[in-house]
What we know:
The longest helix has 23 residues, at 109-131. This protein has one domain (7-131). It has 132 residues and is mainly α. α1 (7-22) packs antiparallel against α2 and α3 packs across α4 (60-69). The radius of gyration is 24 Å and the shape is elongated. The protein has six helices and three strands, in the order ααβααββαα. A hairpin with a 4-residue loop joins β2 (74-76) and β3 (81-84).
Amino acid sequence: xxxxxxxxxxxxxARLERELAAEGRTAEVEAVRxxxxxxxxxxxxxxxxxxxxxxxxxxxxxxxxxxxxxxxxGADTGTRWLVSEESVERIxxxxxxxxxxxxxxxxxxxxxxxxTKRVRRQMASEKKAAGx
Length: 132
């Protein structure tokens, strides 16, 4: 089983690649690029923005914006963006939960009122029991 690579690790390697390039260290730049290419594979828990967009049903631009905002974990490796497969799966699980709640229907104002009264009574009872 392949080891999962954190997007932060790829981000650090991409930054290192840029620093080495600025210093003119061509051999080291190529080595870092080769390592990035080997590490940035779906079996390592990473997806391209295109793969993430397809799974989520959104555009590549949206995926990049979500990475920038922290909604998805990912990194710009300098040559391409990569997204944590686990963070994509988390969004899909949230969507599924919301869809299931919508199917069940939302509580009516009366149901919310009754639930609130019940919780308040329970809290009062627990407070009274704790003081006794």
